Amino acid sequence: xxxxxxxxxxxxxxxEAFIALGDHSQLALYLAFATAFTVFVxxxxxxxxxxxxxxxxxxxxxxxxxxxxxxxxxxGSALIVDYVLTIAISAASGVDAxxxxxxxxxxxxxxxxxxxVVILLIYLNLRGMRESILLLAPIFIGFCVTHFxxxxxxxxxxxxxxxxxxxxxxxxxxxxxxNVGWFFVLALFLKAYSLGxxxxxxxxxxxxxxxxxxxPRVRTGKWTMFLMAVSLxxxxxxxxxxxxxxxxxPSRSGETLNAVVFGDIIASLGYDDATSxxxxxxxxxxxxxxxxVAANTGFLGGPAVLxxxxxxxxxxNQFSALSSRLVTRNGVLLMGAAALAVLVWTEGYVALLVxxxxxxxxxxxxxxxxxxxxxWWRQRRDVEHARRKLALASFALVIVVAILxxxxxxxxxxGGSITLVITSSVVAxxxxxxxxYSRIRERTVALERGRRWKMHDLPGAPPALQPAEPxxxxxxxxxxxxxxxxxxxxxxxxxxHFRNFVFVSVGTVDSExxxxxxxxxxxxxxxxxxxxxxxxFAHCRGKGxxxxxxxxxxxxxxxxxxxxxxxxxxxxxxxxxxxxVFEHDSWWTRWLHSQTPLAMQRLLNLHxxxxxxxxxxxxxxPEPAAKARIASA
Length: 633
Fold this sequence. Notes:
The protein has a five-stranded parallel beta sheet with strand order 3-2-1-4-5, with helices on both faces. 68% of the residues lie in helices and 7% in strands. It has helices spanning 2-9, 13-20, 28-52, 58-66, 69-99, 110-126, 133-157, 162-180, 182-195, 201-208, 217-245, 257-267, 273-311, 325-346, 350-378, 386-410, 412-451, 480-493, 517-540, 555-569, 587-592, 595-606, and strands spanning 471-476, 500-508, 544-552, 573-582, 611-618.
């Protein structure tokens, strides 16, 4: 996925940077070298992310672990907006590439065509489409072969002009500075330099997906980062040099800069018009197809970010269960609807989409590099080479913050302010969601305080388990108070019926992609402490009791597996779960709660098992006087 994301950034990043120079295209020579240098600096800094997060990091987890939870919220929100814009900008750029082959009269329907592409991708993802190597490999290989060959030939054929171009660039820059001042030259260069920020988006994708690489992951990840940096820097700088050497000007007929320069290069090969046109069609078809495939990464990456943020309660809990078709559908619809809204609002204008996109990319970059800087500053006296790594991380941070500041200030009224408002809105929603979950947790803890319950010492051996006897299986969470309430309700509803009480709990953590051994150990300790307390409570009530636990990224899948394991050991069992019911019900509470019990009820029913859902009513009013109450039903 990371390869396709970085390649499609080459379709619009260099072009937007070059166009921003306007009549002063001589600065493109500096731009080419600055872009290549920046790619290497950020890539080297992101090697540190691979070292510190060998199981995969990503901007969200890096910011959360190294800066703080709220920094993680900002980074995660920026990534969500980034993936939405990935869909929108890839669809719009792909349509631009393909429409470069059509007469200007057809340009008026480009927005509708981009919307159709997004709708088609939504449909395919709802049908369960995934990236297929049989589809992607030919597209990726075709893109690389055609574009690398044209870039190499285009530069080589004008190789004799390169040295004179350097001299002319230096002279023209000096003359320009003499006429309008060095401040104007620097401001113009920084404007173009910052608009090429979309070129760097593949860098983070490598660190995000280290967990998918072969062992040893750190070494493989660093080599992948190096190869990516080399290919990305050479290709981006090469395309910018092509624009300069071939004196490319933006086309008034709607053709992209890539279409213009590649068309000129192909025409210079001496083939007849029909052959030249066929070759150009092939080049732009590969470019457009790769862009459409890249748009699909938004539908894959967006729900994954939502799942990781759901573990930390920044988004609704339901997004943590990616194996659920309902959850996947909701994630796909959310990302697709947002992308369509962005396309309609921007009218598919790539220049504006680049601004929106680049701001969010560099927000994540900045927070990740800030985390690295803080980490190595704290370790500067204790870890070998820490000072060197600190210097690299802080230097990369300065570059990234400068690019972010320039594009926000320069394009504040042309999209910079809007993207900050959009990302800030996502941050605000995440903060409200977490505050709601914290308030509900406090209300449920009040249930336990009202019972004045504490751990008891058994006078003798605990009651023995009787696997053949009726067994109540409780699907519990991290909240001990709700577990105690459920046990009491079962005893009241079915007095002396069940001989065994079995407690099942799953700790939700993305252990494969973002987890660590330390965080997993902490989660196990907290989960098992709750389970031990519930087993102790059941023993004191004269019930044979035990617990089962599991840990993973998908709570529903793990609960289903444990439930079937319990069924094999206790065949005469009935399953119980609790569901929060709010006295003041609203779409907000329905959106944030009640998903897991209902989903588990359906899953267990498919296996012929019974799950009884017991309601727990709470008062969700924000007033401090509001108190939790138990449903009598």
